[in-house]
Each structure stands twice: as C-alpha cells, then as structure tokens.
Structure prediction request, 852 residues.
Amino acid sequence: MGRMSASTERPRSGRREATRRRLFEAAVDLISEQGYGATTVDEIAERAGVAKGTVYYNFGGKSELYTALMEWGVTRLADTLKAAVPPSASPGEGLTAVLRAGVVFIGEHEALARLLMAEAWRTNQAWYATVRQIRTEAIGVISGQLDRLAAEGAPHPGLDTGLAGSALFGMVVTVALDWRTLQPERPVEEIHATLAHMTAGLVGTPASPPKNV
Amino acid sequence: MGRMSASTERPRSGRREATRRRLFEAAVDLISEQGYGATTVDEIAERAGVAKGTVYYNFGGKSELYTALMEWGVTRLADTLKAAVPPSASPGEGLTAVLRAGVVFIGEHEALARLLMAEAWRTNQAWYATVRQIRTEAIGVISGQLDRLAAEGAPHPGLDTGLAGSALFGMVVTVALDWRTLQPERPVEEIHATLAHMTAGLVGTPASPPKNV
Amino acid sequence: MGRMSASTERPRSGRREATRRRLFEAAVDLISEQGYGATTVDEIAERAGVAKGTVYYNFGGKSELYTALMEWGVTRLADTLKAAVPPSASPGEGLTAVLRAGVVFIGEHEALARLLMAEAWRTNQAWYATVRQIRTEAIGVISGQLDRLAAEGAPHPGLDTGLAGSALFGMVVTVALDWRTLQPERPVEEIHATLAHMTAGLVGTPASPPKNV
Amino acid sequence: MGRMSASTERPRSGRREATRRRLFEAAVDLISEQGYGATTVDEIAERAGVAKGTVYYNFGGKSELYTALMEWGVTRLADTLKAAVPPSASPGEGLTAVLRAGVVFIGEHEALARLLMAEAWRTNQAWYATVRQIRTEAIGVISGQLDRLAAEGAPHPGLDTGLAGSALFGMVVTVALDWRTLQPERPVEEIHATLAHMTAGLVGTPASPPKNV
DNA sequence: TATGAATGAGTGTTCATTCAT
DNA sequence: TATGAATGAACACTCATTCAT
Prediction:
C-alpha cells in the first residue's frame, strides 16, 4: 500500500482503486506480450484509458507498477495452488490436484505465467526478489505434497522434494503455456491426462488404469 | 566484381567472420545477464573490441544481431541433444541420456537457457519464429525417445509424446536453471538423480534402486 | 476525458500552441539558411528555446515539422496573392497587382521562397504533395487573371494560361530572389518596373509608350 | 585493360574516365531527386556499379564529386545556349533561339536543371560560387540578346536587361520543369509556343500570328 | 586502379519522469 | 485525484571517410 495520507485504509474501492485495477490489467497484457523493456508507460496508460501522469500518481513509476503487478499476480497463483488441496486428500490426490489447479490457472492467466517464466532467472532485476519469493511459495505447495508422499514411504525414498517441486512446477508451466500458445483448441482434460501420465511413477498410481483417485 | 556472391555464405572466414564471432560472444554474455532491452549496442561493441558501426555493418541492427544469436545458440542446443543419444541405446537409456545432456548443456550455457525461456512464449517478437522452431527441434529429440518407448509398449500406451516432450523439456530447463541460480555448488549428479526419479515411471525403471547418487 | 478532442483543432492556444509557433519560426529561419539536411533538431529546439523532446512531442519528427512548415508558409503565400487582387480591378490591373504582391512577399519571406524553389520539383519527398498543391494554388491566382484577360479577347487568343501562369510565377520568384541575393539595396520599385516591362505585351498596357506594336 | 602506372595524362578515357562518367551520371540522378543531403555515397556507388572506395579514389569526397558535377553540367548549359544563336540572327530571332535551346536542354537534362534551381540561392554552400558563376553565364547569353534589342531601340528603352535576363531564365526553367514533371507527354512545340507568346511584347513580334511553330 | 571492412562523430528518436494546473 | 505538456538523458542508427589489401 503506501499512498493514503490523512485517513486510514478505505476498503471500498473508490475511483482510485478502479484506476489501479485498470492499470494492472493493461500492464499484464502488454508486458507479457512485449516484455518489460518494450512496453512504454504511454501504452499502458492508453490501454487503461487514463493519462500518463496517472500512472505516476498511483504507482510512482514504471518499475514499481511492475513489481506491484508481479506481487499481485504471483500471490494469486500461490493462493490458488494452496486452495487446491482438499484437507482430506491423500498425498497422491493432493499432488494431482495441485498440478491440475496449476494448469487451469495458467490457462486463465497466460500473461502472468509468461512473465513468471521470463523473469524467473533474471537475478539482477529490481523485482527479482519478489518473483523468486512467491515462486518459491508456489513450488512449496508442490513440494509439500511430495513431502507427504515421502513420509508415507513413497516410491523414491531419497527424493529431493525441493528440486522435484521445481521440476514439476517447470513441467506444468511449460506444458500449459505450450498448450495455450500452440494448441489452444485442445480440451484441458488432455493436458491433465498427459501430466497424470508423467507423474504416475511418483504418485504410485498404476499407470494405465487410474481406477482409484 | 565486388558485389556479394550468390549466397550469403562467404567461404573465407577472413576479417569479417572473425568480427562477427566476437560480436556474437559479447552479445550472448551481456544480453543473458541484463536482458535484451537493458543491453546497449555500445556495450556489445565495446566488449567485442570493435566500433559501434561495425555492429551495423555486420548485422544491420540490434534486433538482427539478437536473432542471429538465438539461431546460433539454440542450434547448438538441438545439436547437442541429438548427439547425446548413442545409436545402440535402448529407448529408456536414450531418454535418460538426452535429459542428462540437457542438464549439462544448460550448466555450461546458462545465459542461453535463460534467453530461451524468456522468449519461448513471446509470440510477437521478431525472433519468435526462430526460437520456436529450434525449440521444437530440441523437444523433438526428447519426443523421439518417447516414441520409441511407446513403440515398445511402454508403460503408458496413450501418451501424447509431443506434449510429454514439452513437459520434460520444461522440467529439465527449470531444474537446471534453479540449480545454477540457487544452489550452484551442488554436484551435477544430484540433479541427474532427481530427474531420473521423476522419469522412472516413464522409463519403466524399477523405481526403488537408485544406487548411483 | 484527456484524450484528444474530435478534430485536431484545439481552440485554446494555450501553452502548446505557443510552443508550436516558436518552433515554426525557428525552423523556417534555420532550414532556409542551411537547408533541411544540414539543420539539426537540436538547433531548432535551441533557437526556439525548448527541449529537443518538445519537437517530437509537438510534431512527431523532423520531417513532419518540415511538412507542417511548408504548409503553413506556402498557404500564406497563396493567401497573400489572392488578397492582392482588388475586386474591381481590370484583368490587366489584377495581373500587375498579383505580380507586385509576389515580389513584396518574397522580399519579406526570402527563406520560404528559397525552400519553395528547392522543393518544387523534388517529387519523391514526403512533403512534395503539399508543396505542389499549394504552389498550384498560387499559380492558379495568376492563371485566373490571365483567363480574364483571355476572356476579354486579350492579345494572345490561344494562350495556355496554365503554363503561362507557371511561367510568370517562375519569373517573379527568380527575379525577386536574385534581387534579394545579389542586389538587396535596389528599391523594390525597380523590380516592379522590370516585371511590368516583361508583361507589357500580355497586359496590353502601353508599356510606358509602346509606340510600335 | 592495362595497368600502366607512371605515364602522363591520357586523353583517351581509359578505365578511369569510364568510372568517373558512371559516377557522374549516378550522382546527378540521385541528387536531383533526393537532394544532396539525402543522397548517400553508398547509393551513388551502387548505382554506378562500383565499390564505395572508388568514389573517394576518383573524387576525393562527396562534396568534391558534387562540385565537379555542377561544374560539368552547368558548363554544358552555358555552352549550349551560346551555341544556339546563329551569327546572322536578328536580336529577336536570337532571343527566341536561346529560349528554345533552353527548353530543349532542360528537357534532356531535367536532373541538372532541378539541381540548378535548388542550389541557386543557397549562398552558404561550398559550391555556391560555382553555381552562381555559371548561372550568371547562362543568363548573360540571354541578356546579351536583350542588349542587342535595346540597342536597336526596342520596345522598352529603359529595360534593365540584366534583371530581365534573370527573369527570362527563371521563366524558361520553371516552365520546362513543370512541363517535364506534370505533363511530360506534351510536345515540346507547345512549350515553345507559350514562351513565344510571353515574350512577344519584348521581341516586337506581332502578337497574334505565331506562324513559326 | 579499385575494393569493402571498419570506423566513430553526429543525429534522429524514444520514453520514463516531472510538475503546473 | 488526475492531467498532459514539457523535459533531457540515453539510445539506436547513419554515413562520410579511411586504409589495408
């Protein structure tokens, strides 16, 4: 937060909050398509339907807008993944659910996912810390399920669940983005099915006939 | 006399070819560290030890240099992966070998891998076609091994090997970059081992005995 | 709010219009002295007392500024010529008046006249259409008087008044510019007198005393 | 072709002279269309079919090439006009002949004529002196005929023949260029006829019957 | 006599940022 | 709370010129 001078937090999104949201949406679309450097503040303001100065009034600058954007978006991803695991789920079910939720989320927020991958390893950017931290959270949700599997004496005792979480995260994002970019007409179920095949060995599911779960 | 010969090829490397190579090397380093937008032509020329005009004389512009760079680099990746599969290898061995080669390559060419992921889904860039095409080649090598597995009646009959190839590609790049970025001190063998665990179900390897770690 | 109003017109001159005018004035002087290619945007901005970016904010680029300039200037020429013919004038008087007005205008706007001649037949320039069109207007005022003369059964029945207008236009501009460039100290009346001599045959005026013919 | 290094002037145009001529021709066309500033040495060399360095080897630089060009071209104009007056011609016939020769010359050397008008009043250019001097020569031929007319007690006793020569020169060039640019399909005779009409008053020709066409 | 790769000062243009309204 | 005219440092790019071959 941080603007807000005299009075306290105002929950109701007045004119200001609406402006910020419009700027967010304009920025995600443009930056994910063109990249941060190639997207101008003019473009963002124009697509949002406001004057250029308004960007500065509301966010202080281009990079602050971008950081806020990443924070906003990636938090939603982490929250979505966390919410995807039913409390009663078995570890295997939990893992499957998380991966499915990831695919669905990316299908609905392609732009954000593209940004996430583009910035994930660019360590010398101002917003790297933000991206990394929340990316870690997202991966943590996956690793959490792997830990539960391991605790149950799952197939691979010595598995490095941290690294494996990163692996599954990369797998999900890559598959989902390739799907949206190259074959957007395919039903999401086919994507899920492929991922289920890929992780069958981990989950301990008999590969071909997924009777249970 | 004096005009270009028929094709762009120029057999004698001579002065010009040497200059181009130096510019390539300077550009990969700088752009992968700083990003395309944040890298200036002046910097590239300076690191290559040539005058700025030489960049334009040889490549025509910044973006053309970048495109040539991507083509050059990503071709090397695809070639490396292709060379990684011994002719006599079983499908399972072949897949394992490809993934290992991918990790090794990325370990040695982080810069390139970062660029690859950053640009992979940025469809409106001038160089998108180049990146996509050669990325497809790289994934094709993986999918090829999966096809061989499938032909042998591997664990998952209905597997979409194209999508699965993309999944494994994303997994390998993500893991390898996370390794280099967050835990560069870990031995490469631990990375291989984790990937082996992840793909055990596919390869049909008895999951339990990962003796080599 | 905030976007452009319907047309490009902007009723309140305000700050912006003042800036544009200053840039115009700076540009005419500099370009007519040095030529378009030899005049830099920096120079124009400096003489106008604004920052370089302001040129781009207001005109979009150097060539657009130049086009606007030509349009502005040449429109003034055409307007001046049109206004020079008193409604009650005879055709002969009208023609004389137009030529006199042309000489006076050029005497006061050498810079513009030089540009006009320099660009008049440079057909592949961005601003050629503009120059040509308004030049045609100016010539049209002359041709109009010639038409009236012809209608009165003037000396030369078969005269191509369009071409003749072009001829007189070229004559006036050439004489006026040679005057300003080579003999600026001569009184304007001597220029008028010479032109009157030259056109005496057309106008049918007793050229002082045209005893014969 | 020979080597032949250390001999004296070679009147016969060897390889070198041919190269120079090709460069001349390329340069007139390009510069007259685009202007001096907008024409690059690369373009000139390419159109001439030689390497860029050859321009420097033969002329020393771009502006030297241009100066040589102007000198070459404008000398030809003056010579042509001088040659156009038969020794036996009356002053009136002589003037008519000069103007006709001017139109014909410009019809065949449009490019040169455009340059002449574009540079005629640009006093701060390196080649201004050249242009002015030879332009003066050309006008001198016209003024010469006017002087003869005046000496015969021609229609306008007090005529300033210097200024009048300039006027006729401008008239001829303007008409001829407008003809080539806007109505190139018209026969040259129509242009001559119009000019004859315009100068009828000077020449003392009975206006109505322009029998000679 | 000619070439063309290389140069680098100079220029047009962009764009994040400021600020008076 | 929002605007948009103005800014100027930074940048991509141009092109006349040089020189080793």
Notes: Residues 1-12, 206-213 of chain D have pLDDT under 50 and may be disordered. Chain D touches chain B at residues 50-51 (CB under 8 Å).
